Every structure is written in structure tokens, then in C-alpha cells.
Amino acid sequence: MSDALDVLKERGFFKQCTDEKGLRAKLAEGPMTLYAGFDPTGPSLHIGHLVPAYALAHLQKAGHRPIVLMGGGTARIGDPSGRTEMRQMISYEQIDENIASQKPQIARLIDFDSTDAILVNNADWLAPLNYIDFLRDIGRHFSVNRMLTFEAYKQRMEKGLSFVEFNYQLLQSYDFLELYRRENCILQIGGDDQWGNIVAGMELIRRVEGAETYGLTFPLIARSDGKKMGKTEKGALFLNPSLTSVYDFYQYWRNVPDTDVERFFLTFTFLPVEECRELGKAEGSGINVSKERLAYEVTCLLHGEGEARKAREAAKAAFAGGGDKSGIPFTSIPEADFEVGINILDLFSRTNLCSSKSEARRLVQQGGAKVNDVKIDDVDAVIGTAETVDGEVMLKAGKKRIFRIEVK
Questions:
Q1: Total-model pTM
Q2: Over pLDDT 90: what percentage of the chain?
């Protein structure tokens, strides 16, 4: 258990620690209870949200006890950390539905069934709070001047910070206090944008309970090419296959920059460190083999082995010939529509390759639209039965995005 901190450092889950020496000693003593928070303001987590879950999983594998805290209470007002604008309010019912859909996604990494790991909802203790009592018992321990020095608030002060959001740090600090009292939780982990909130929670516990707790943050993951981690042409890389198909999820990892391969193996898989480093060192055609392995390993972890195999076969069918096409995203269009003829802009906008005709127009004009590997550069082109091959039409947007039309 004492090497748990070294594992996190080796794999890139270490940026700041409030007391590294003290935390190392505590980890060596035996199982420790720790937590990370997750924001249920959306129906699905995306890959960036999962970084804390990977860190929790490594600590669980080292013998420690993770708590997954779902922010059912804090989501009612929104975390200002890393935001330039106030979050849109959503209904309490929607928050509950989001928690229900996110739990199985987190369970892909955290073992809740055969261990004492738990998932809790901070609405259980935040929703019943009496505001006057909360201000007397908790609010008096916070300095407004100190809070305004934290980066999360400094960024928002430029555009306007609502009083609702200003309360967020008090609520997250209270979470840490509650988990300390209920579960003897003495470590909170999270992305580096949570540093101020974590430190505030530790100080609250010290003032109220006189106890020593710890905080650890890790870097916010970014790609070496400057693109935001998990950001695709169509938006975030979601875990819900209805928002991001398993095929597109697989292809994202297959197409990451060469320089990110080693780091992403270390961060998003549980392969041994030395194997991750070896795979990342590959050059030439070898790095493409490593990327295929990365795509398969991550997809297998987060969608299951069967879905990962289908996505791998679909990629082979799309780009290397052979393989099973069934994993390629598709839709069905009646044969009668092709007999009449479908304008190229209409056709592309009926797929997930383009969200609108204007986007399809830009794609065609920029030379990125292909039908059955034939480039189409005329926005008035009509696709008919002549373009159907074995009952289907294959569309491509750029070099890497593909979509299959089943002609029925």
C-alpha cells in the first residue's frame, strides 16, 4: 500500500499534494478512505470526467477504499471552477436521472460489488440543511478575502460571479467534513482546478473537528497538439454510445498524436508501466500498431470486450479492407429516395457527419466529402441508385470519419 503514491506519480496522477510526506505515511499504515467528486449536470460522463475515477481505481487496486461522490446537491447550483460563465440550472429530476446513468459508467473502473467502495449523493446531507444554522456553524469559518484569491473565483470575477456560485466552495468543503464524520474519509483527490476547494475543506475539518486530512490533485489532461482532451469534431467524447458511437470512441484513440501515445496508455489503461512506455516508444508503422492497441484497450475498459472487437473490425473494414462493417455508424434510407436522387448536402446532413446543410456545404466546398471513396466537390451533386453498392453507400468526411448508409 505504501507505493500507491508512486503509482500515481508514475502514471501522471500527481500535480500538488498538501503534505506528501504525511500522506505517504498514512497510506503505508493500511487501508485509507478517500473520495473524488463527480458532476451530474449531464446525462453522460465524457473521457475528461473519468480521470479522477482512474486515480480512484489505482488507489483501490493498492488496497484503499474509494468513495465516489455524486454532486446531486452541488449540481443544483453549479461549480464555477474552470468556467467562464454560470452553469445553466437543470431540474432536480434531471440531476437524479443523470446520476443513475453515470453510475454504471464509473463502475467500469471502480469495483462496487466485491469491495467496500461506495457511491454517495451529497444531496442527502446538503438538501436538508437549514440556511441560518449552516451560516452560523460553517460559514463563519470562511474568509471572503481568502476565497477570492483562489483561481476559480478570480477567473469568474472578471465576467461576474453570482452569489449562488460563491457558495459552492462552502458546500464542497462541507462534503469533505460530512465524509470525514460519516466514513472517516481523510483524503480528497481531483483535478488541479479543484485545489482551492480541497484545501478549504481540509481547513474546515481542522477548525471544526481538529483533525488532519489530505488533498491531492493531478494535472488537467491536454493533448500535445493543443486540442482539448476528449474534444472531437462533433463535441465531447462521451461514454454514452447514443451520444458518441463506440466506433467513433475507438477512432478517437486510434488517431491521437504520436507524442501522446505513451501518456495516454499510462493514464487511460491499467497496462504495466513498462509496457506502456514500450508501446509509446514505437516509431514509423509501429506507432500505428500501438495506437490500435490503445484504442482497443480503452474501448474494452469502458464499453466491454465485445464492443471493442466490433469497433476494431469496423475500422479494418473502413480503412484497410476486410473486417466487419457492422460497427460503423449507420442509418437506413429507403431505396425510393435514391431512385429519385438525394442532394449531397441533404445526404450528409442526414448522418452524424454533419449537423446541418451549412456544415455539409462547407465540407463539400473544402474537398472533404467522399461517396464510396469518390470526392464530391459540387454542392448540387445528386446521389442516386448508381452510387449504391451491395445495398449500401459509404460516406466519408475528411480522412478519418466514416458513415454507412443502408439502402432499404
A1: 0.82
A2: 57
